[in-house]
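[step 3/7] fold_predict: job queued, chain A
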Amino acid sequence: MDAWDVVVIGGTVAGMRAAIAAHDAGVSVALFDGRAHGSDAGAADTGGLAASIKEATSRAHRDDTIRAGRWLSDQDVAAARTSAAFEELAQLERWGLVLRRDGASLPLLQQLPGHSEPRVASTGDSTGRELHQLLEEQCIKRGIPRRMDMQAVSLAMQEGSASGAVFFDVQEGELVSVQAKTVILASDGFQSAWNGDGVGDGTGAWLALGADVPLRDMEFSACNPLNVETVDLSLPLTLIDDGAKVRLASGGDVEFGADSGLHAASQQIISGGELCVLDARVLKRTSRKWYSDTAERVQSRCGLALDADVLPLAPRVELTIGGVPTDGTGKVTSGGEPVEDLFAAGGCCNSGFHGADIVAGNHLLDSLVGGAAAGAAAAEAAASVGFGSPDAVRVELSTAGEKVAHLLQGVDEGALTRAAGAFQLASVMSDAMGIERDAASLETAAARISKIIAAGLQLSDSNPVMNTELVEVLRLEGLLKLSAVSVASAKFRIGSDDAGNLVHTLVDSSGNVSDSPVNQGSGDDWLLAPPE
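[step 4/7] structure written:
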């Protein structure tokens, strides 16, 4: 059985940043991901990185974040994340990230939805890909083991403390147990539940849910307002600041305000009941070179030219906000109490930074700063404890083995194929958990998801070696559980008299929902309060 001081689950930006921070703190660390090398590059990144590097303080950035998040942000976390943005961006530049520059050779900052000032830095339309490559290089330089095609199946818990995890080795077709002093969950969110494309399978969140950790604010998600209709092609938000216009079919432009997060900006696009288009024909000539990849994708996917045609828009879910609850250090909490030796960062967690909506550029900021914080905190915890008994890991390995064997050996009558299950789930989530929701639709959605879960999923291939279908079924089972608790949280938010107040929702694996207060900050000199 392998044993590491820190085990990171997820090869995302947050996961690699956590692994780097843990390694630099002097502990042994290994990163496990269910996908191949580079598969996560650029996922869910259309907004660049937000940092108030040309402002005297980060106060306005913090306030914009809290305001756009409808005062549901943890204000201490918002203050810490935004104040750490400058140093994190500087660190990325020291590692070799090449940002767009202005006339003074400083990073070019753009004003995007949710910001009262220009503060989003990027590399054009390749920010996610270049950042992912940069962090991969830093992991390689440090000799951090990155074991890919290792799908996490379950967490091993011992007396309420994380002691390791069980993985399915796709290439070997075997289950592998790994012991750890601390575990960091760092997968993406669960946006694939809406889109059915496999991007964002929420592994970290459903692992935590399976370990009896209630999830927080699962009802909140964010759409990309610049998603091209029918082909589901998400375009960079930086196009807006570079001159592109969102226009109504009947004429006139759609303007995004400083208090508009991505969800609110998407609401603006659909609120008029008429088609909106993106007009990039008016893109600044000096900016067009930064969107060559976007122009190529528009041509190949739509048969249109970015500089000659308008693109019909239909926002779709790109990021999820709810997930594993953490404090500012990345430590996972359950009912307000810390879960020992378990940490989380990135899209699968709910750090409290975003509130009810995401400001452009804050997703990458949360992944980077949150990943670094979780890695450092996990390393500190690992340095002060020894390895526990491997018994809990062995028990979890046996349980996972029974589950996988059942999937491989038999076909339950009426069970769905993975493709059919994913299609039905996406239909349910798109219908009921989109931008506009109502209690009746949510009730119907809960019943439909329960029916899919009850039917079960089947495999067409019984050979475990290189069985990617098995991996997809494991992920889809997790997505179904996350979708069920997400709908339960949304029903609670709509139906409770207190749900509109400053509360978080907490939902357990049985769909039981409760609430907890939002941290409105510990500094009276800067405390933001919602308007009366």
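[step 5/7] annotate
The mean pLDDT is 92.
The longest helix spans residues 468-495.
exit 0
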